[in-house]
Design goal:
The structure is a single chain. 16% of the residues lie in helices and 42% in strands. By secondary structure, it is of the alpha+beta class. It has three domains: 98 residues, Immunoglobulin-like; 106 residues; 109 residues, no CATH class. The strands form seven sheets. The protein has a five-stranded mixed sheet, with helices on both faces. The chain has a five-stranded antiparallel sheet with strand order 19-18-17-16-20, with no helix packed on it. A five-stranded antiparallel sheet has the order 23-22-21-24-25, with no helix packed on it. Helix 4 crosses helix 5. It binds zinc ion (ZN) (2 copies). The site of one zinc ion (ZN) has 8 residues, from helix 1.
Length: 370
């Protein structure tokens, strides 16, 4: 490879440089001598200041033309990322490395002290820069819609022939909240709960951002507790293209009887503690421990009388095990000794057992259901 002798177009000094490789462009700066080249050289090109816009309500960050949930607790990482996106490194530089030292000036300003190093024309060079980052707060489109009370669907949590119990309401709302949180975690910013209203005695009403959410949550609730889902679409408007827009009310109707209820089918076999209300009512007989299952035609609403719930159980003393069908207990109210049916779940070594009293009758409950 032979050197050719040329002259710097800026200062006229002779410059020795190898022939350019075929296809390599010879731009103006490639002809300059090192001295003139480095006089004008800037390793890093960066704007005077960098702006980051975040949502003051949910902390989402505005990127490009959309909002992104980062779950950022402080915005230092966001600011570093914004600076690294805003800066450009000179194309002639090799082996470029950079470090940054953020300095929080106040709530909305972070000064980024950046240091860069690289190799240009075989010469190691370095550069220090300070870039102020302004954090601007706005309200993202989702928070704006939540604040404006926007919703597309109402989920009503109800129960068959009875009000929803507080523990069921809590559990159903928890299903809704965790489902929406999962969608959000997957990056779905269209998924949100607008409001939860517990003022209706029949059960809670949850306003949701999309019909899809209403359907999915109603189904999850009845998958877990049993029951049925009904939907009632209401035409609210037509969109710009003349398509009809429906707002759908989904009713997740919990079964009339649920696990923990003690019911009497009045078939001579004695009361039953309900263990499942999926499909048809299932349970355990309190006198024998035998299995009970309602006929399929009766589903979850067989003709039974509700006696109470397992959370009303009280502990009482076992006096004696009479035989394989009978146990003597103290009546928890009168303290009289009483002979009751011995279910197969009864532990013969137990000193006390949970019981439910109904009128003059005392029933032993399964320990694990109390
Ligand atoms: Zn020169
Ligand atoms: Zn927001």
């Amino acid at each position: 490879m032979s050197d050719t002798r040329e002259f710097c177009p800026q200062c006229g000094d002779p410059v020795a440089r190898p022939e350019p490789r075929p296809g390599e462009p010879r731009d103006g700066t490639a002809l300059l001598c090192d001295s003139c080249y480095f006089d004008a050289f800037e390793l890093i090109d960066v704007p005077d200041r960098v702006h980051v816009t975040v949502c003051g309500r949910c902390g989402a960050v505005h990127r490009g033309n959309r909002w992104v949930d980062l779950g950022a607790v402080d915005y230092t990482d966001v600011a570093i990322e914004a600076v690294s996106e805003a800066l450009s490194v000179h194309i002639d530089a090799d082996d470029v490395e950079w470090g940054v030292e953020p300095e929080q000036v106040d709530e909305t300003t972070i000064r980024m002290h950046c240091s860069f190093s690289g190799v240009v024309r075989g010469t190691p060079i370095s550069e220090q820069l300070t870039v102020p980052v302004r954090i601007g707060k706005e309200v993202c489109d989702r928070c704006g819609r939540i604040a404006g009370g926007y919703y597309a669907s109402i989920l009503q949590i109800r129960a068959e022939d009875r009000p929803v119990r507080p523990d069921e309401a809590d559990a159903a709302i928890e299903v809704a909240e965790s489902y929406v949180a999962d969608r959000e975690a997957d990056g779905d910013r269209e998924a949100f709960i607008t409001s939860v209203d517990r003022s209706d005695e029949a059960g809670p009403n949850v306003k949701l951002s999309t019909n899809k959410l209403g359907q999915a949550i109603a189904t999850r609730i009845t998958d877990r507790f049993g029951g049925t889902v009904d939907d009632y679409p209401t035409l609210v408007t037509e969109d710009g293209d003349g398509n009809e827009v429906y707002r759908v009310t989904f009713v997740a109707r919990l079964p009339k009887y649920t696990p923990g209820d003690v019911v009497d089918p009045e078939d001579g076999e004695g009361p039953v503690v309900v263990t499942s209300a999926h499909g048809n009512l299932k349970g355990t007989r309190l006198r024998s421990g035998e299995r009970y299952e309602a006929g399929h035609e009766d589903g979850t609403t067989p003709d039974v009388t509700k006696l109470g719930r397992t959370n009303e159980a009280v502990d009482t003393t076992v006096v004696a095990v009479e035989d394989e069908h009978a146990v003597q207990l103290l009546d928890p109210e009168t303290y009289e000794a009483k002979t009751v049916g011995r279910p197969d779940y009864f532990d013969p070594d137990a000193e006390t057992v949970p019981v439910l009293k109904d009128g003059q009758n005392v029933y032993i409950l399964p320990e694990e259901m109390v």
